[in-house]
Design goal:
Chains A, B: Belongs to the class-II aminoacyl-tRNA synthetase family. Archaea-specific ThrRS editing domain subfamily. The structure is a homodimer of 149-residue chains. Chain A is built from 3 helices and 6 strands, in the order ββαβαβββα. In chain A, strand 2, helix 1 and strand 3 form a beta-alpha-beta unit. In chain A, strands 1, 2, 3, 4, 5 and 6 form a 6-stranded mixed sheet that branches. By secondary structure, chain A is α/β, with parallel strands linked by helices. The interface between A and B is medium-sized, with 24 and 24 residues. Strand 5 of chain A pairs antiparallel with strand 5 of chain B, so a sheet runs across the interface. The complex binds magnesium ion.
Chain lengths: 149, 149
């Protein structure tokens, strides 16, 4: 997974047109102020451990949100961050999983997957306002390896 | 080089704070409307052929700008697009080279390199409004190889 985190005055989007892999949704417009925007590309290697990549992504986003004292989080699918994307099915599962976990503690707005979207963004510009992350799933523990080591 | 091209209603920036590699400049604020914003990360492999990577980047930006019928171009350094960056010296040389070439035909605004910057962006959201590119420098022709082949 590739992630770009932007501490923003606001993020506003409007879905304009479907691509072939558009999710079915009625949430076609949204806006959040004083937010952390998480642009996310789910990658091929994340398919091996969906639960693991969701957990690590949530952990990373929470860590930054807490440091910035932000209560509002935008999850924004962003395929352009990677040239090795997962299947659309996995991407949507991961994005929804991150949304579900973060909603336990934050106000979360998730922009729809697979739509061409207009957006307006205002990045604050302080030293921690733009961060990028490469997140890899933990290896799932194998019984055999545990016995051998 | 990694490039993210966004067809925008506007891009506005304000440099807030220097990093250790900040270029010396008085152009600390800027705004352009109806523009193509080129977010650019210059990469290690581009160091082998600075002239070549400038030419290919300019060619790519011009192609998209012409298709979109855009006369205004923003060059915006964006290290977060790559995890294999060039030296700051090469990055600045490439960014200035692209600016100089494009200025022959377009209105160009170049955001300063190595500064923490606030920015506001409005992406139009039509199918061609967000494009990403990986650009590699041409191999410089070697006499020996030409003879052998
Ligand atoms: Mg403000």
């Amino acid at each position: 997974m590739r992630m770009l985190l932007i501490h923003s005055d606001y993020l506003e989007f409007e879905a304009k047109e479907k691509t072939k892999i558009a999710e079915d949704t009625e949430n076609l417009k949204g806006k959040l102020e004083e937010c952390l925007v998480s642009f996310i590309a789910v990658e091929r290697e994340d398919e091996s451990n969906v639960k693991g990549i969701i957990d690590k992504a949530v952990e990373e986003i929470k860590k930054v949100a807490e440091k910035l004292k932000v209560k509002n989080i935008v999850i924004y699918p962003y395929a352009h961050l990677s040239s090795n994307l997962s299947s659309p099915e996995t991407a949507l599962e991961v994005l929804k999983g991150i949304e579900k976990e973060l909603k336990k503690e934050f106000n979360v707005l998730r922009a729809p997957f697979g739509w061409y979207k207009a957006f307006k963004l205002s990045c604050k510009g302080h030293p921690l306002s733009e961060l990028s992350r490469k997140i890899v799933p933990e290896e799932e523990k194998k019984e055999k390896e545990e016995v051998e080591s």
